[in-house]
Amino acid sequence: MIKYLGSKRVMLDELVGVVRGIPGVHHVLDVFSGTARVGHALKRAGYRVISNDHNAYAHALARCYVAADRERVIHDVERLVRELDALPGEPGYFTQTFCVESRFFQPRNGARVDAIRDAIAAKGLDPLVEAVLLVSLMEAADRVDSTCGLQMAYLKEWAKRAHGELRLRVPEVLPAVAAGVCEAHMLDAEEAAERLSADVAYLDPPYNQHSYLANYHVWETLVRWDRPAHYGVACKREDVRTRKSPFNQRRESLAALSRVIQALDAKVLVVSFNDEGFLSREDLERALATRGEVRVLSRDFKRYVGAQIGVFNPRGERVGEVSHLRNRELVYLVATARAEPAIVDSLRRARLDGAPDQLSLLDDTAGTLSDE
């Protein structure tokens, strides 16, 4: 899968283990699906997964890794990957924008992206087959990019991997699950919370001012293939300036997340967060406690790679130092009014493997957080 900030790759086993520990769960809703790693892992574990994300590239990833079933698409995908991978490069918008005006990819690889993406667009494919091919192309480009994992900027010198040849691979599309047909939606989070329901709702919301659209604008353009006007050294899409999310606004994030929490129709809420976001633990726990008892599991982790190399200005000059190299990943478990007593009991016993767990409850009469 693509390099992605906050993908929860290192916590997949633990998150799936948390869901497995909840009795009677068959259906999981992933409200902010991102790379669809969590949804993919849950589908592999046998759950019916409903993924949602408002960005087009994330929707393509969820269609590939959650909604598509291997039995349905694999024959066409394998044939088309071979066909598309044999195409010669043909420079176009992608090459000009991301290889000439900026330096995210070597021009020869950009030309391959142009040729392959044009060919996919011309075929009029089944949407799930098309999504798998788009993910194959996105991941192929990701393997030869020249970034540190974000598309806010590119490296001053070519990354070693950027000299490689772009080659398509068949993504790991999973078989259908007995629990039911999995789905992928492209809704605003609040709309998804109002329209979709599940036994468990999993939330991994944005937590700071950096939007995922800005961080991964190249993938958005590759999937939409709309040849947008762009700005700045990184050639960001013009709509990065206008497609703003309240979750990336300090003053709006708590209210937006509170609305999602209130609207969700689920027996259990599982919320992944860390201690570097806009929201304090106290604010988040108060919002969650309006739906039921809150269990907080905590785990220490190394910070993302960008936080380990210092702060640089647009000219590549180091202007700031690293403040800390570790943070805490928090997993909140909330049994709502829909939850049966067996579910409530299971959450009180929940743990993250290898990490001390913590209990944090809201004292409704005092209106303050109790001691842990």
Attribute tags:
17% strand; Rossmann fold; 372 residues; 13 helices; 2 domains; alpha/beta; disordered C terminus; two-stranded antiparallel sheet
Brief account:
With 372 residues, the chain is of the alpha/beta class. It contains 13 helices and 14 strands.
Would you mind describing this structure in some detail?
This protein is α/β, with parallel strands linked by helices and 372 residues long. It has two domains: 1-56 and 180-205 and 249-372, 3-Layer(aba) Sandwich (Rossmann fold), CATH 3.40.50.150; 70-173 and 212-245, no CATH class. Helices cover 36% and strands 17% of the residues. The chain has 13 helices and 14 strands. It has helices at residues 12-20, 37-44, 56-67, 70-85, 93-100, 107-122, 127-142, 189-195, 212-215, 217-224, 250-263, 281-289, 341-348; strands at 27-30, 48-52, 183-185, 197-203, 230-231, 236-237, 265-274, 293-302, 311-312, 318-320, 326-335, 357-359, 362-363, 368-369. The chain has an eight-stranded mixed sheet with strand order 3-2-1-4-7-11-8-12, with helices on both faces. A two-stranded antiparallel ribbon has the order 5-6. A two-stranded antiparallel sheet has the order 9-10. Helix 3 crosses helix 10 (217-224), helix 4 packs across helix 7 and helix 8 (189-195) packs parallel to helix 11. The longest helix is centred in the N-terminal third of the chain and has 16 residues, at 70-85. Residues 303-309 and 354-372 have low confidence and may be disordered.
